[in-house]
Amino acid sequence: MTTREDLLVHTFVELTDSLVDDFDIIDLLTVLADRCVELELAHETGILLADGYGNLRVMAASNEATRLLELFQLQSDEGPCLEAYATGERVSHRDLGEATARWPRFAPEALRTGFLSVDALPLRLRSVVVGAINLFSREIGGMAEANVVLARALADVAGIAILQDQALRESEIRAGQLQHALDSRVTIEQAKGMVAERAKSDMDQSFDMIRKYARSRRQHLTQVAVEIVDGTLSMDQLIAQQATE
Predict the structure, then answer these.
(1) Residue 212: which CATH number?
(2) Is 218 helix (H, G, I), strand (E, B) or coil?
(3) In this structure, what CATH number is given to the domain that contains residue 163?
(4) pLDDT digit string (tens) for 37-56?
(5) How many independent structural domains does the chain possess?
């Protein structure tokens, strides 16, 4: 029989595996949502994640009713997850029946869904916040502090995994951009050599000719170099322009 301690260890293993292996963010967050329920940290959970523009999206929920409530939260533009994401801090309300002044649309809908209290925690690494998790309870009073500490630890691991994945992808993009720049530099050097040979100029003069031609036509330097190398741009045309300037 699996104990709560066994499940907790297994959960941390599942989440930390994503720190070293290729993983799917939706699967990671679904595991987090389900485990928070199985570990009895909440009756139901929902997780929102920010897109590249900072707009929150529902990424996981422990059941369909909770997913719909999270969508309602976004549509209403109010609720605990939005506040936790905006502030980077825990947001808690021990009695949603008394939260209508704070969340006039969200609180009644949460009550209709069957939830009486809520805690929301940010998904973050230090000051960088990528989303938030809602932990709903069908009882008044909210989470015990020991459960808050545990839920925060799980949320932090998920936040670290997501940010690491983003950093890796950005690094790959930067590496691709660097490789493109290196490849472009090779092409420019080839173009300079071709112009130098044809125009009987040195390499500096050849580069200046290419640059002036690119600027006069508002083209990228690399684009002109490519056209020289592949023969799209006539060498006579390039040299003739220099004579008119």
Answers:
(1) 1.10.10
(2) coil
(3) 3.30.450.40
(4) 888 889 999 999 888 788 89
(5) 2
Of 89, 1, 84, 33, nearest in space to 14 by CA: 33
Q: Cβ atoms within 10 A of the Cβ of 219, count?
A: 14
Go through 51-72 and write b for each residue having 16 or more CB atoms within 10 A of its CB, e for each that does not.
Answer: eeeeebebbbbbbebbbebbeb
DSSP 98: G
What is the CA angle 149-10-170, rounded to 5?
75
Contacts of 205 (CB under 8 A, 6+ apart): 196, 199
**Separation of alpha carbons 47 and 67, rounded Å:** 9
> Does residue 207 carry a pLDDT above 90?
no
pLDDT, position 169: 65
* Positive/negative CA dihedral, 128, 36, 7, 151: positive
CB atoms within 10 A of CB 50: 17
Residues 127, 176, single domain; the answer is no
Least confident of 117-121, 127-131, 182-186: 182-186
**Predicted confidence band of residue 156 (pLDDT cuts 50, 70, 90):** confident
Q: Which of 14, 15, 4 is nearest to 159 (CA)?
A: 15
